[in-house]
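hey can u check if this looks right to u? its 169 residues, i copy pasted from the old doc so theres a chance i mangled smth
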Amino acid sequence: MKPHFSMASWLRRGFEAGVVGAVLAIGTLAAMHLSRSGPRLLLPNGLDGALILMPAVASLGVFVVCYPIFLAATREDAILGAVAAFLIAADALGAISFALGGMIYVHPLSHAYPLGVVAAALAVPPALAGLAFGQLSTPLGFGRSAGLRAVLGGAVVGTLVVLAAAYTI
């Protein structure tokens, strides 16, 4: 008899969301490389920089967190799935970005980092805000209502974070 291996539902949904979120976030790396022919060390200031960062922050900070919340059957599944998804997507994006070698200089830290690492760091506040808003604003903390609130909370915070970063980095 063949052994049957099945993952917990929160881990399966977290893995699904993490992989899809990392694939979507690769749009940031593509935007950075296609926006200029030569190697770029500085992120453009203003809305150009925000447009380069937004795909990664939206996919890591909003999509990755809301997907497990939408499909969860319990509050615990929603929280664990969202955390697992964010960690998987951020690690994948950071590794791909490091392998491609697209470095940008971050002025406040006076150091150059891979673009995926910067985008993953900027996605932490929207992810936490979306998770908190989805959990604290509904009595159940999972399902469509909590997922929609997580999307709205994460999107608002993500937009503000990206705009602030685009003018300061």
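Strands lie at 103-106, 111-114.
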